[in-house]
Amino acid sequence: MRPVGTELRTYHDFAAEDVVEKDGKKRHLLQFAMTGFKPEEVKVKACGSRVTVHARHEEKSEQGSVYREFTQEYSLPDGVNINALKSLFSENEGILKIEAPYLASEAPKETEIPIEREEKPAENT
Beta-strand (E) ranges in 40-91? Predict the structure, then answer.
């Protein structure tokens, strides 16, 4: 695994990192080198905290045939909003990006906890 921003060269190259935006929002970014694949040949699925990328390419000609298949499974870190995953395929770069924003964390709130009285049993004299 490489840090995001490094050059991904072949279809098995992969990068992942947390990114913090200027406004303080945090997201997890995955990048996969998908050179040789078209967007319609790539499927991204999420199940629980796991993301699976699967791609299949096949072409036939008089000279022969080419077959490529790629599958990568990744466990997302705790705190990621699974329901807000986004994916973007850049055909020019041959890069698939999957963005997973973190759930907004609330500042700890001060809560007053009421005190209940426990009555002592009456003494018999």
Answer: 42-47, 50-61, 64-75, 86-90
Q: Are 4 and 67 in contact (CB under 8 A)?
A: no
What average pLDDT does this structure show over 47-58?
93
pLDDT number for residue 1: 45
In the chain the first and final C-alpha atoms are separated, in Å, by 78
Cβ atoms < 10 Å from Cβ of 42: 18
Residues near 86 by beta carbon (within 8 Å), at least 6 away in sequence? 98, 99
Coil, strand or helix at 31: strand
d(CA 46, CA 69): 19
- Strand-pairing partners, residue 19, are 27
67-114 residue pLDDT tens: 999 899 999 999 899 899 999 999 888 899 999 999 877 666 777 888
Residue 102's identity, in one-letter code, is: Y
